[in-house]
Amino acid sequence: MAQSAERLVGRDADLETLIGLVDNARAAKGRHVLLAGDAGVGKTRILRELRGRAVADGRQTFVGHCLDFGDSAEAYLPFTEILDNITTALPEVVAQVADVHPALLRMAPVARVLGGADTADQEALDRGNLFAAIHALLERAAEKAPVLVVVEDTHWADQSTRDLLTFLFTRPFIGPVTIVASYRADDLHRRHPLRRQLAEWTRLPSVERVHLGRLSDDDVRLLVAELAGDLGIDVESVVRRAEGNAFFVEELVQAAGAEELPWDLADLLLVRLEQLDATAREVVDTASAAGRNVSDELLEAVAGLDRATLDAGLRQAIERAILVPREDGYYLFRHALLGEAVYDDLLPGERVRLHQRYVAALRGDLTTGSAAGLARHARLAGDHETALSAGIEAGDEAAATGGPDEASQHYQQAIAQLAGHAASDHDTQRLVDLVVKASDAMVAAGHADRAGKLAREQRESLPLDAPGLWRAQLMTVEIETSFAYVNDVEVGALAEAAMAALPEDAPPLVRARLLAAYARTLMIYRRHDDAERAGQEALALAEELGRTGLAAEVSATLAGTWGRPPQARIEPLRAAVARAAKAGALHPELRARIQLAFALDAADRLEEAGESYRSAFLLGVERGVPWAPYSFDARTAWLGHLYKIGRWDEALALTEAYGIPPALSPWLEANRLMIEQDRGADRGAEARRLRPSWKQEVATASESVPVEIKAAGAHGDVETILEAYDAGVETLGRTWGKWFGGNTRLSAVAVSAISAAIPGLPVGERRQVTAQVDRIVAAGMRPAEARPTWGLEGQAWTARLVAEGLRVHWLAGIDPPEQEELVDAWRKAVAAFQVFPHVHELAWSRARLAEILRAGGDAAGARELVDQARESAKQLGAEPLLEHLRTFGTTPQRSGAGPSGRLTARESEILALVAAGRSNGEIGTQLFISTKTVSVHVSNILAKLGASGRTEAAAIGRRRGLVE
């Protein structure tokens, strides 16, 4: 009888490629591989060979399998298997890591069996600690010997597994750790959830992709010879029919004795089953309903056969290469396609009856199943009540494990079963509790908007006489989620309604959560005394209940009260950060860190503020939650800080983000456009296309509107400048308040853009334009007038706004200021931007002052300022400013970048690729940056070399020794 080939046929080159990547990874410390290929092409077989070679080479290998559980996914399933393997091989390492990272124990197999989930602590939904624990475990294991981790069949991976892989791919390892993840390329339809993350992974410099193609005809002939020997197989028939699919070849050889072979692979697989006797077929059928694998204990309970008969059936299935035994007591199908073919061949009634037997077995005393597995079997068996209760337990299990996506999925399925069918108050209370759980999971997974909508929909569907407790619970969720994303919720009115609805005998945790949200709402409305009282009550309840995460959240609210001056908030916020870190409450810690940074910023301790932004951003990335609300806020704030102090390349790098949710992407996009525009690109049209996103994240407007305004100013389009300014002020004012501080900056940018158009305007139109400028200046001055104290940033932009307004009148010749007044205003602007460090705006302020000094006859003073501004502009690559400075007539003869060069390291790298004839798209692919970023770099290179095009730049680069 033909068996699987002992020798790997036709894959020598592919295997050597994989081995080379793994060996290189040992040196690079963190190179990973994606292995793609069609079903049956031989991915598992080559991975088995790779593991064998790795073991022989002294590596530790750990394998995890993803299984097709459909809508009953178990969070981190392959990593649970990997952790089990590591625990067996390195128990002392696991114990040591668990001491430092207790979250690791949540993934241990013993915590995943039926009834094993600890659902008392919803704070377990924070998966940042778990991600850090897995990373630390692999790092620690690598201290013993190089580690190879294999995750098979990631096309079936749950969302949490995919997110964990993203985390491991993006966070470097110190030791030699390599991850190889395989997937079926032919299974990835357009809406497959893995497609988006594959696109992210393949862009990472740490990840290589290998596609396993089909075997050549000659390789198929060799494989047939290896499998069949001298059995007289019609080799050419196999070659024609197998089409290079190794698994198909094996099945064709196996079925060669059949009278007539089907052409379809699924039907061909069933030929193998026809060789089984009735008992073995029953065993195989029973195993297929379990999925890819099944434990011996569960199979015995479901099959209903005595032990001897079951063993006889298993033995035959193993001999026929249908089932394969594992050392841990599980049986799995030799290939997933084989299990799928067996299950698909069952009659509908047979499937239902098998799933009913699995439900009966799993509801007994077995501990080898999971709640998610029971829920799946119950749904397929039509047992709705069991499916409901098991689905809720599966959600609790996923939540306790740190799998918010899977928890949310299970809870939402249960909600769908209960909604509209609640027959009693008990059912409705159960539904409300489920909505709260589902919302917590959605928020933890980064879907706060969906959580808020779910809570609102369920609240609005409650009967008119519904108890106040239910309404208060659902309104609490709406309030909490409204803090995480921009929506149309009137949070103040909602909070008051929730407090009014909350009964005196409400459960303490319900009361604590609502009070915490209420305190935060009161803080927003500056009712500081009321907020303090509500917050202290919430804190006392949280501490009494042992809810350390909630207590940390309330502490952050109380410490960051706007009722105290910024300086007085700093130390309480430092204590709140420490408290959250000690409790392992990641999101409260991120919030406290970002609030601390805001307080430091407001207290004009700008370097400390920048460091606090950076630390919060890095913490979010390190813990695998870069897009959580406060983690993302920290990214944008750190990006803004880098922009101001002139580290533009670093700031641009922060805009190239993998896996960013669509709702957040426009904000980063606006920051990217702002820097690229300041370097000379016309980004006005792209910025305007971001306007629809203002509804989701209003802060986008604060960065995209200046881009629109500057682009219109470059074209002398006053009408568009005014329209963009008014649209931005109306949008931001509606959300941030009528006199929002950012209006001063927007006004200064708008007036500056209008000034560029003044010389080209007909004299008769200038008075009307200056009247609009006066309106904008007055609006921009209101934030300063409304504040008793105004920070360094506000002072700088106020001084700039005054100076820009006077300059417009000076240029237009309408009520022009005296020369002394104008010079004084611009000297104040320069001084203010020296104190508030903003490299680009300081350079522009110096350029404007130089222009006015030169017009007044002070050529020497103007020249000194121009030289200072030019030096800053060169360092930034700010081409529009450089071009403006060239009009002064004081610019020295431009010198090229010599061999030592003024090109940055990245620009030198790109120049070499330009000289090699690469397009911007090809350069972006090679360097893992966007094509737009390449375009900006190329523009900077042309400017620095004084070249008119790419060919001339390459020639100059070769002549000066910049390019070989």
UniProtKB/TrEMBL annotation:
<dbReference type="InterPro" id="IPR041664">
    <property type="entry name" value="AAA_16"/>
</dbReference>
<dbReference type="InterPro" id="IPR011990">
    <property type="entry name" value="TPR-like_helical_dom_sf"/>
</dbReference>
<dbReference type="GO" id="GO:0004016">
    <property type="term" value="F:adenylate cyclase activity"/>
</dbReference>
<keyword id="KW-0547">Nucleotide-binding</keyword>
<keyword id="KW-0067">ATP-binding</keyword>
<dbReference type="GO" id="GO:0006355">
    <property type="term" value="P:regulation of DNA-templated transcription"/>
</dbReference>
<dbReference type="GO" id="GO:0005524">
    <property type="term" value="F:ATP binding"/>
</dbReference>
<keyword id="KW-0238">DNA-binding</keyword>
<dbReference type="GO" id="GO:0003677">
    <property type="term" value="F:DNA binding"/>
</dbReference>
<feature type="domain" description="HTH luxR-type">
    <location>
        <begin position="896"/>
        <end position="961"/>
    </location>
</feature>
<dbReference type="Pfam" id="PF00196">
    <property type="entry name" value="GerE"/>
</dbReference>
<protein>
    <submittedName>
        <fullName>DNA-binding CsgD family transcriptional regulator</fullName>
    </submittedName>
</protein>
<dbReference type="InterPro" id="IPR000792">
    <property type="entry name" value="Tscrpt_reg_LuxR_C"/>
</dbReference>
<dbReference type="GO" id="GO:0005737">
    <property type="term" value="C:cytoplasm"/>
</dbReference>
<dbReference type="InterPro" id="IPR027417">
    <property type="entry name" value="P-loop_NTPase"/>
</dbReference>
<dbReference type="InterPro" id="IPR016032">
    <property type="entry name" value="Sig_transdc_resp-reg_C-effctor"/>
</dbReference>
<dbReference type="Pfam" id="PF13191">
    <property type="entry name" value="AAA_16"/>
</dbReference>
<dbReference type="InterPro" id="IPR036388">
    <property type="entry name" value="WH-like_DNA-bd_sf"/>
</dbReference>
